[in-house]
Design brief:
The protein is an alpha/beta fold. The protein contains ten helices and twelve strands. The structure holds adenosine-5'-diphosphate (ADP) and magnesium ion. Magnesium ion (MG) binds next to helix 2.
C-alpha cells in the first residue's frame, strides 16, 4: 500500500479534510490510499538486553478484521501487543496505527493509545472503585466527559456485557469472568478503534471462559478490529479471519483460519497445534 506522510507535503497541509477524503486531526497522520490497513508493522524488532523478543515482525490488520495470534510461551506475543500500543518501545522497524506512525518523539503515542483498548490476563480493576466507577474514571480523565455522560455510557456498556445489575458492586464481589467482562467494558468506554486481548481467559476457571468469549464474539460481530492472543482454538475457528503463528520472536506462518488450523505447513506450527488441539 502506498502511504504519504502528509507533514512532508506542504501543499496538502492545512487543506480541508473533505477535499482530501482523509482525516487531518493530527499533523503526522498518514494519507491512506487503497485497502485500508488499521495496523501495519514493518520489520519491528525488540531486544531485552541480549534477548531478541521480536525479530523483524511484519504484518497488517485490516479494519474490522479479527486476527488470532498463537505461539509457544516466550515467542513474543505479549511483547508484540505491548509495542503496538506503545507500552514497549521498539528498537527498529515501523508501527503505523490507523495512519499514525507510532513515534515517541512526535507525540503520536498518546493519540495512538487512545485508539487502542487493551485487555490483559489480569483484570487490573481498581479495587476501591465500584464497577461503574471503574468504567467512568478514564472517561472523565482522558476523554474529558462529564460525570453524567460517562455514567450513561458506563451503564450502556455494562448492559452490553451482561453486568448492568453489578454496577454498584466492587471488583472483589465479582467472579473472575465478571471482572474480565468489566475490564472489557472499561476498555470499550474509551471508544477504541482497535481492541488488543492478551490471553484474556487464561486466568479464569474453565466455567467462566465461555462468558468472556461470548462478549468478545459480540464485539467481533459488530465489526471491531481485534488482535487476540489466545489458545482458545474453538474461539479462533468461529471468529478469527486469520491466524498468525509466532515462534522465537518471528512470524512463522499466517493465513486464513481454516487453512492454518486444517492445513498448517510449517513443522513448528504443526507441532504447536498438535499440542493445543489435543
Ligand atoms: P509470550 O507472550 O509469547 O509468552 P513475551 O512477549 O512475554 O512472550 O516474551 C518474549 C520474550 O521476551 C521472553 O523470552 C520473555 O522472557 C522476554 N521478556 C518479555 N518482557 C521482558 C522484560 N520486560 N524484560 C526482559 N525480558 C522480557
Ligand atoms: Mg504473553
Amino acid at each position: 500500500m502506498e502511504l504519504v506522510d502528509r507533514s512532508e507535503i506542504p501543499l496538502l497541509r492545512g487543506l480541508h479534510p473533505s477535499t482530501q477524503g482523509v482525516q487531518l486531526d493530527a499533523p503526522t497522520r498518514l494519507l491512506q490510499t487503497a485497502n485500508f490497513m488499521i495496523i501495519e508493522t514493518k520489520q519491528i524488532s525488540k531486544k531485552f538486553g541480549e534477548l531478541i523478543a521480536l525479530d523483524g515482525v511484519t504484518f497488517e490488520v485490516e479494519k474490522g478484521e479479527v486476527v488470532v495470534l498463537i505461539g509457544p510461551s516466550g515467542s513474543g506475543k505479549s511483547t508484540l501487543l505491548r509495542c503496538l500500543n506503545g507500552l514497549e518501545k521498539i528498537d527498529s522497524g515501523e508501527i503505523i496505527i490507523d495512519g499514525l506512525k507510532l513515534d515517541r518523539d512526535k507525540g503520536n503515542i498518546h493519540k495512538v493509545r487512545e485508539e487502542i483498548g487493551m485487555v490483559f490476563q489480569e483484570f487490573n480493576l481498581f479495587p476501591h472503585l465500584t464497577v461503574s466507577g471503574n468504567l467512568c474514571l478514564a472517561q472523565e480523565i482522558v476523554r474529558k466527559r462529564n460525570k453524567s455522560d460517562s455514567e450513561k455510557i458506563s451503564l450502556e456498556l455494562l448492559h452490553k456485557v451482561g453486568l448492568f445489575n453489578k454496577k454498584d458492586s466492587f471488583p472483589n464481589q465479582l467472579s473472575g469472568g465478571q471482572q474480565q467482562r468489566v475490564a472489557i467494558a472499561r476498555a470499550l468506554a474509551m471508544n477504541p478503534k482497535i481492541m488488543l486481548f492478551d490471553e484474556p481467559t487464561s486466568a479464569l476457571d474453565p466455567e467462566m471462559i465461555g462468558e468472556v468469549l461470548e462478549v468478545m464474539k459480540i464485539l467481533a460481530k459488530e465489526g471491531m478490529t481485534m488482535l487476540v492472543v489466545t489458545h482458545e482454538i474453538g474461539f479462533a475457528r468461529e471468529v478469527a479471519n486469520r491466524i498468525i503463528f509466532m515462534d522465537q520472536g518471528k512470524i512463522i506462518e499466517e493465513g486464513k483460519t481454516e487453512n492454518i488450523l486444517n492445513f498448517p505447513q510449517n513443522p513448528r506450527t504443526i507441532a504447536f497445534l498438535s499440542k493445543v488441539l489435543k
